[in-house]
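Readers outside the structure-tokenisation community will struggle with the description of the input data as it stands. I therefore recommend that a typical entry be quoted early in the introduction. An entry of this sort, consisting of the sequence and the corresponding backbone structure tokens, reads as follows:
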Amino acid sequence: MATGTTYGARDHARAQGGKRAAAMPLVPAPDGLVWAETVAGGNYTHKVLARGTELRLADPTGTACAHLLLFAEGRPWERLNVADTVKVQWNAYLGAGRLLLSDQGRVLASLIADTSGRHDTLCGTSSAARNTARYGDGSPQGASPAGRELFKLAGAKQGLEPRDLPPSLSFFQGVRVDTDGSLEFIGSAGPGAAVTLRAEQPLTVLLANVPHPLDPREAYVCGPLEVRAKPGAPTGPGDPLWDATPESGRAFANTADHLTARGL
């Protein structure tokens, strides 16, 4: 179909209606969901989620790597603090029952289910310089986009600037610390792994699906990431997660105090 004229371009665009690619959002989301999307390797997505929303990320091929940033909606100065997430909970390894904390000592999200166990809080995402040196290109439109560059695009669509973007954490490609302090890349748990996060505040979510910085493969390998979200209820007093540790109890109490004052 010719696109050299305005009419031709219009007809070509309209002819795409109803067609689907393997990786794209479902709009509107199917019944019972508020977000349904497949994110291709080397791509990104973003969404604002209500408090209590359950966000499920799945790795159908065993090759996805979901790099995540979280922000308190409308307050970008309160954002995921990976260092505090590790330090406050005395643990660098994510899994069910762990909390994702802000730099205000409050819970942004809780990790309520995990069938992978292969995640990373230590390395952050890839940079343009790293990907250019390793793959020959790190630009967001190139063949091997860097996670940091994709976060800049996702953030811009939510009113965030590059200076707003802190270090990220990632799911589905594991890293462990050896006894000598070096980092060991342990890769994926295999196809079909999933994690579920519960939003404990209204959140802005940024996701970049790119290879882990320590992935030893020479090629840029990153498979699709499935994203599904549904309404739910936030963690409340009496939930085992609230009182799992003294640290989690304090973080949830800080969160409740803040939200109550805001009428939430």
Q: What stands out?
A: DSSP finds five helices and 14 strands in the chain. The mean pLDDT is 95. Residues 34-261 form one domain.
